[in-house]
Amino acid sequence: MKTITQYLSKLFSASTEASTKRMIGFLALLGFYPSSKTCGNCGWINQELKLSDRVWVCENCKKEIDRDANAALNIRDYGIRFNPVNAKVVH
Ligand SMILES: [Zn+2]
User: Fold this and answer.
1) Which residues pair with 38 in a beta bridge?
2) What is the pLDDT of residue 70?
3) What single-letter DSSP state applies at residue 15?
4) Cα 13 to ligand 1 centroid, rounded to whole Å
5) Is residue 24 exposed (0-12), middle (13-18) or buried (19+ Cβ within 10 Å)?
6) How far apart, in whole angstroms, are the C-alpha atoms of residue 15 and residue 18?
7) How far is the CA of 15 from the centre of ligand 1 (A)?
8) Which end of the chain is more exposed for a tag (fewer CB within 10 A), N or C?
9) Residue 49 CB neighbours (<10 A)
10) Which run of H or of E encompasses 69?
């Protein structure tokens, strides 16, 4: 078992765990992680969300979601979940 940072360092030949950590952050910010489309309450992903939808209602848990606040909380939670100190990759 390795940390996700060790795994990605090997995968992408990144020089250090710190650079891999930064890369994970960039990937999230570049949109590979659907921070706006993911319900922060239950995790359901709204595939139909448009850029013009500033507020939407989760079809799964019915929570009314502010797009920007939801995205900010999801990115925060993503960072906590993928903290290289805690995260593990199982092979
Ligand atoms: Zn939901």
Assistant:
1) 45
2) 93
3) S
4) 37
5) buried
6) 8
7) 39
8) C
9) 15
10) helix 67-81
